[in-house]
Amino acid sequence: EGEPRWGGGGGGSGRRLAAPIDEPALANLELVLASLGADRRAPVFWDFTKIRYSLTVPSEAVAAALVATVASGYEAEVEMVLYMPDGAGALALGSGSPSPFADVPTEEATKFVLQVQLGSKVTNYTVAVIRSTISSSYQFVYPDPAQAAPPTATLAGLMVFNTFGVEAKMSPRYFMPQRSQYIASLDYGIDWAWVVASKNDPDAVLEMRVNGQDWLPLESGIGCPLQPVPNTGWLLFEVKVSSQIAAAAGTAALVYQVVIAHQAVCHARCRSCYGPGEEQCLRCRSPLVLFEGRCEKTSCPANGYYEWQSYQCRRCHTSCAQCRGPGALACALCPALAFLAPAAWEDIQGPCVMTCPVGTFAHPKSRRCRVPPSAVVKTFYTRFVFREPAETAMMDTRLQGSIINTTAFVLGLSLSDVRPYKITEASEGRLQMTIEVVSPFLPKADADKVSIDTWFGAFEIPVDAVTTHTWDELHPPLPALPVDPLFPTWVYGLVASGGMAMLILLPLYFIYFRRLANTKKRFRTRGGIDPMFINDVVATSPAYLVKRFMANQEGKKHQLDSMD
Length: 564
Hints:
Elements: E1 26-33, E2 41-44, E3 52-57, E4 63-70, E5 78-83, E6 90-92, E7 102-103, E8 110-118, E9 121-131, E10 155-162, E11 169-171, E12 181-186, E13 192-199, E14 205-210, E15 216-217, E16 227-228, E17 235-242, H1 244-248, E18 254-262, E19 270-273, E20 281-284, E21 289-291, E22 294-297, E23 304-307, E24 312-315, E25 322-323, E26 331-333, E27 339-340, E28 352-353, E29 361-363, E30 368-370, E31 380-389, H2 390-393, H3 397-411, E32 418-425, E33 430-437, H4 444-448, H5 452-458, E34 463-470, H6 471-474, H7 489-519, H8 531-540, H9 543-554, H10 557-563
């Protein structure tokens, strides 16, 4: 590829074949990397006698655009047409103007074909771009795809040598079959490198390619041809292992990547690096530890954790103030207004939540969501008088939310434990806001201990007065309800009516009706006939009654009636 090639560079649909350009009509070629910002460009080491170029970009550069600059004095004579990758079409390209972005995959190189016309002369320049799986800060893909590969699909060894056969410095330092990504560095002044790879499966086939170009056969244990290493940028070696045994088990061919670059002069605290800056460290000098490319401390910061796989500190999840590992479920301490909600009370890590789950309350001292004790939860109220017009504050929902958040922060409670109760207008038109506090872990006595200075410094608007109140103080007892009678009123009326009826009917019964009944009843003696009584009756009765009685006794009553 380093030899001059004259002509149209392969032609193609819409591409003209003519005499090649034999003068430096272009001053520069470079790529704009999409995800690294518009000011981050990857230079192409331009040589007008060379028509094919290839380069590797970091994993975060998912798209690229081509920029071509016409040399001074040729602006009016040069015309440029760019053929976009994947047959997306041709478009005119202005000098110094970037082309549309094209995706840059990691499997195959994306090719930009630039047709440059100078009068009757035409040359096609090809720029092949491939994206590595290694980031610009030399971070590897995790988990590594080689970890799941069987032994037959892996390499037994992989080494990089410079021009003089001296082994290059590699990171990780030693080759491991279950790791497929490596970084190799060469000293400045060493411009060539080559690799040696050996396979685990004797029947496996090895292939290699450089910067995403064509795959070429590679003999196991025999070095590949020398490859030029750019002064800036990367050279990407890829070695592919194709094993029939692994393929029969459903395992795809495994590709090992080695990024080769010139070693930079590292900062004094860096043991290895990818640049001279203090934030470009790859490894640290003992006893410092690596954190976001820097070697500044001997331990991880409070908002970080140590990742033993990469031997460096990582930043905690954004929801954590402190953590014990990656992800939102590994928090050990939460930021303000958030509380740790572990799955079980004895767990030392869990997610950070703004509102505690149902059945739990925020514990101010431990900053955890805990199940409340069996004691009754007593609600109290905190009343604030602010130096703010009530008329405008009542319409400002953002200010009201800020007051709620600040109250929860100062008291060390969750937002679910404090809520607005009443917003009114105090004297002189000032805002008066009452906050309801419901927490089994914060009694009113503890809230009384918070000084006015603390409240004044916490709120975004001045506060003039702070008072706390119990439930009973803000909810006076209701007037006593009337006591219901033992029986309904109609029962009492019925009983009274019955009593009056008895008072009237009983005397009437004994005085009148009973005597009337006695007068109509025939007189009967008790226990037989009394002779004395008969003599008295006969002696005192009229003669006609005696006669009638005797006649009746003798059966002669009809005779007596005829005699009368």
